[in-house]
Amino acid sequence: YVERIERQLDMYIDQVRGLSLPAASVGELEGDYNSRVVRGSGRNLFLLDKNLVSHGGGRSRAEVCDLMSTSLHLVCVKRWCGSSGISHLCQQATNAARLIRNDLDFCAKVDKKLKGLHRAAWARLRANRADPEMVFAVMGGGSVSSFPLFSRMTLLNAAKQIQSMGFKVSYARL
Questions:
Q1: What is the dihedral of CA 97, 110, 124, 65, to 10 degrees?
Q2: What is the rounded average pLDDT of the residues 20-38?
């Protein structure tokens, strides 16, 4: 069974391509990393970390991703902290993909947060004229195959769901 999971992970999750994400510094916080990467990206990346969208009623708020590139890499970043962190990362990415594909109101709210080339890229995504890529980015994590089995299973299930919604899925070790 474990070998089958490994084969499927290789089928569903690629290494991120077309986007350069630098390594995280030892002890660097997620928010500091995201800000640093955006500053050094030459306007390729837009910071959406902590830029929550009020949506769903009550106090509900959602983060579409942490970083968005002009080529529609939607990067969800988490510091490695075991299986619970991977579970949260997978939920963030899966829920964001569902909202993007199924909720026009949510997408309109995200659009208002974006500017320039990122807003144009978002319009291409919404018009299905682009191939978005959901990137699982783990600070201080190893290769996917080094994750505990529970985390690999969670990641595989999320990747299958996200891919079924028309996204490419990739992994970046930070």
A1: -40
A2: 96
